[in-house]
Write a structure and sequence with these properties.
Length: 207
C-alpha cells in the first residue's frame, strides 16, 4: 500500500492548507473523512463481512463502525511481516482477513463471539461452518455525487483557516471516475500527485 505522508510546508500554507489534502490520514481521522456510513448493531454469533477490491472503502467502514465499539480489538493484518496476535474477545474487528492462512482461519473464528471483517475474499462458507450468521456487504460503486462529498471532506481536513482553498474542478473528478472507476484509493493517489505538483511550483517561487 502506498502511504502519502502528511507533511506541512510553507507552500501549502500559501494555499491555505496545512498539508496535502490527499495525504494518508491517521487512523483516528480516517473514519471521519468518509461519507456517512450507517451504524449497525452487532449480534452474538454474527459475522459482518465487508467485501471489495482495493480502494473500495473496507477499512473506512471498519473504522467507522469501530467507533461504536471502542473496547473491541481492532487488528490489521499487514501484507508483509509478522501478523499481530489475535486475542480472545467478545467482538473483534479484523482488516485484510484474506491474509490469514486458510488452515488457521477456522480456529481463529472461535476466538470471538462476533466478528467484523474486511476482506478481498468471501469467507461466508467457512464462517457459517464455524457457527456464525453472516451479513455480507459488498462495497462497489462510486458516483460523482459521492466522490464530490468525499473530496470536500478531504479539503476541509487540510484547511488552515477561512478563505479560499484550491478546489478540484468537477470536470477533473469526472475524468478520474472515467479513468479509475470506483477505485477511490487510485483517485486519491492521482489527486495527491496533483497537489504535490502545485506545492512544488509554489515552493520554487518562494526560494
Amino acid at each position: 500500500m502506498i502511504v502519502y505522508t502528511v507533511l506541512p510546508t510553507r507552500a501549502f500554507a500559501t494555499l491555505n492548507l496545512h498539508w496535502n489534502p490527499f495525504s494518508e490520514p491517521p487512523l483516528e481521522d480516517r473514519a471521519h473523512l468518509a461519507v456517512e456510513i450507517p451504524e449497525l448493531e452487532l449480534q452474538t454469533k454474527q459475522a459482518l463481512l465487508y467485501l471489495g477490491e482495493k480502494g473500495r472503502g473496507k477499512t473506512t467502514h471498519l473504522l467507522k463502525l469501530h467507533q461504536s465499539y471502542p473496547e473491541a480489538p481492532y487488528l490489521h493484518l499487514p501484507e508483509f511481516g509478522k501478523h499481530p496476535r489475535i486475542p480472545r474477545a467478545k467482538i473483534i474487528f479484523l482488516d485484510e482477513a484474506q491474509r490469514l492462512p486458510h488452515l488457521t482461519r477456522y480456529f481463529t473464528w472461535q476466538k470471538a463471539s462476533t466478528w467484523v471483517i474486511a476482506s478481498h475474499e468471501d469467507h461466508t462458507r467457512e464462517l457459517e461452518q464455524a457457527g456464525f450468521t453472516v451479513k455480507k456487504i459488498v462495497l462497489e460503486g462510486l458516483n460523482l455525487q459521492k466522490l464530490e462529498a468525499l473530496i470536500e471532506k478531504r479539503l476541509e481536513w487540510a484547511r488552515r483557516s477561512s478563505g479560499e482553498i484550491p478546489r478540484v474542478p468537477k470536470a477533473k473528478l469526472e475524468a478520474l471516475l472515467e479513468q479509475f472507476g470506483d477505485d477511490l484509493r487510485s483517485i486519491e493517489g492521482a489527486l495527491y500527485d496533483a497537489y504535490q505538483t502545485m506545492e512544488r511550483m509554489i515552493g520554487r517561487h518562494m526560494t
